[in-house]
Design brief:
alpha+beta; Beta Polymerase, domain 2; seven-stranded mixed sheet; 11 helices; 7 strands; about 55% helix; rod-shaped
Length: about 350
């Protein structure tokens, strides 16, 4: 069996994200894949209608723009899709998953244009139904993974089965998640160096934002484990053993990436704790300094307050050296209080 592209080859395929609208029914592209033969492109939904159920030695892939008004009507009339497919399409569910839908496989696959200002609106979602000889996919925004797959098909790539197409999309998503994790790791490395050097004030909020970002990407891009396990345990009867092995390998790849993402989250959490500890230590030192200033200023404030009372009997009011005597008294009291405070501060704790 031949695969569309290897991981390295995917990165070399030029990708065009121009917003193709398709024809009135929303057809973006369609291909007929036969065993050991180059993919054949179809130009219209009428051609796709004639081929549905007629590709015995391969499968037909129809990719539609769900934003077009006629796309859903065509899928209901010709693709024999379940109500669950259309319910997921209308609900806009973006959680990546693969599950069994009667005698078909249903999957939700996501594609993101990642940067550190990532927003949920940057996610493009693909809803795909896979049967033995028919694959129907729909999207509202262009996906780079689908565009790469379409480019490879136009160049004559082959796919052994419909599940192989799903496997290609899953592996592309795993590669993208790995790339995002690597990019985030490089950023966390830079932040970690800054934190260890004491420049942590400006990175505290960034660490929190990066941690939230990784959680959101994990939720969007990693397939739901329970749904995938149920699918692998009870696949449709037409799924071959080789196809099941493909899905298991894709699941293992996601598991590895998921461990990397979880490790990244733990690392960010430790860095947050380290930054919080340093902030708390600095706040403690600042509070101690303010307390010391307040304590050292206590004698002069107290004495000046007492001698500022304009009442009779103020001592040393007629003495020629009264001012300097009071300065000496205040200085002695300040030194004494400072000595007691420093001694208490330097005392070893149990």
């Amino acid at each position: 069996m031949s695969s569309v592209t290897s991981t390295a080859q995917r990165r070399l395929v030029p990708v065009s994200l121009k917003p193709e609208g398709g024809d009135r029914e929303g057809l973006i592209c369609g291909f007929v894949f036969r065993r050991d033969a180059a993919a054949v492109e179809i130009e219209s939904t009428q051609a796709a209608e004639a081929l549905i159920g007629q590709v015995a030695d391969g499968f037909l892939w129809v990719h539609l723009n769900a934003s077009r008004a006629g796309a859903e009507a065509w899928m209901r009339a010709h693709a024999d899709l379940s109500d669950d497919f259309f319910a997921a399409l209308h609900e806009g569910s973006r959680s990546t998953r693969i599950e069994r839908d009667a005698d078909a496989l249903f999957a939700v696959i996501n594609d993101v244009t990642f940067d550190f200002d990532f927003d949920a609106s940057d996610v493009a979602t693909l809803w795909i139904s896979v049967r033995a000889n028919l694959v129907v996919s729909a999207r509202r925004q262009p996906l780079r993974a689908v565009d790469r797959l379409r480019t490879a098909a136009k160049r004559g790539a082959t796919l052994a089965s419909s599940v192989a197409l799903l496997d290609e999309l899953l592996r592309d998503q795993a590669d993208e998640l790995q790339r995002i994790t690597r990019k985030a790791t490089e950023r966390v490395d830079d932040i970690e160096d800054a934190v260890l050097q004491g420049h942590y004030e400006k990175h505290t909020s960034e660490l929190a934002r990066l941690r939230r970002l990784m959680v959101r990407l994990q939720r969007l891009l990693v397939p739901e484990p329970s749904a995938l396990l149920r699918t692998l345990a009870n696949p449709p009867g037409w799924v071959a053993a080789d196809d099941m092995q493909r899905l298991r390998q894709a699941s293992e790849e996601f598991a590895v990436v998921l461990r990397d993402v979880a490790a990244m989250q733990d690392r960010i959490k430790l860095m947050q704790e380290e930054a919080a500890s340093r902030v708390a230590d600095q706040n403690s030192r600042t509070l101690f300094t303010l307390t010391m200033v307040t304590v050292l200023a206590l004698p002069i404030n107290l004495v000046s307050g007492l001698f500022g009372m304009n009442v009779g009997g103020i001592p040393l009011s007629e003495h020629k050296g009264g001012f300097w005597i009071m300065v000496a008294v205040i200085t002695a009291l300040t030194i004494g209080i400072a000595w007691l405070a420093v001694r208490r501060f330097m005392r070893p704790r149990d």
